[in-house]
């Protein structure tokens, strides 16, 4: 399934403004993550909460049926340990309640890739209703993987912050 490059500007012009604002914020967050920094635990939890809610909304508001739910759950379970492991690098300073994070390109790449994949799937579903079942399964897999990864990451953050609370 491809998207005709001639119609791409027209399609992108019809994407809601909030989607572009979310994209700008995800890019900004990713660029900030390139350098070492300290953040409050609550501030650090924003990106995982956004992606968890986005993943859950695709499950709850999306297409119903057993297969999409099972695909979503399977991908969430498979990716949760990866999120848990990636969150192990977090270091909490208990006296100040701050998290020390080493700079990394991973958040920028991850955020933009997840956004682009969700956007592509949304556009593909609108343009190719004849491939609905395949696209729903792909969207369920991506949403579940996204939610599972960030649930694992949020659990790692919670574990790291618990002694500091």
From TrEMBL:
It comes from the Bacteria. The chain crosses the membrane at residues 15-34, 41-63, 69-87, 108-128, 140-158. The keyword Nucleus does not apply. It comes from Endobacter medicaginis. This is Transmembrane protein. The keyword Transmembrane helix applies. Keywords: Membrane, Transmembrane, Transmembrane helix. InterPro entries: DUF6622.
């Amino acid at each position: 399934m491809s998207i005709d490059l001639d119609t791409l500007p027209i399609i992108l012009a019809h994407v809601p403004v909030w989607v572009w604002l979310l994209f700008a914020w995800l890019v900004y967050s990713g660029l900030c993550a390139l350098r070492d920094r300290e953040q409050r635990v609550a501030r650090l939890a924003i990106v995982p909460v956004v992606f968890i809610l986005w993943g859950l909304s695709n499950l709850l508001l999306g297409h119903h049926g057993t297969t999409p739910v099972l695909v979503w759950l399977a991908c969430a379970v498979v990716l949760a340990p990866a999120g848990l492991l990636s969150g192990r690098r977090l270091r909490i300073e208990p006296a100040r309640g701050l998290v020390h994070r080493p700079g990394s390109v991973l958040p920028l790449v991850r955020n933009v890739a997840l956004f682009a994949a969700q956007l592509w799937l949304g556009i593909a579903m609108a343009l190719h209703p004849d491939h609905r079942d395949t696209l729903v399964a792909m969207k369920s897999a991506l949403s579940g993987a996204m939610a599972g990864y960030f649930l694992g990451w949020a659990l790692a953050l919670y574990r790291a912050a618990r002694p500091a609370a």
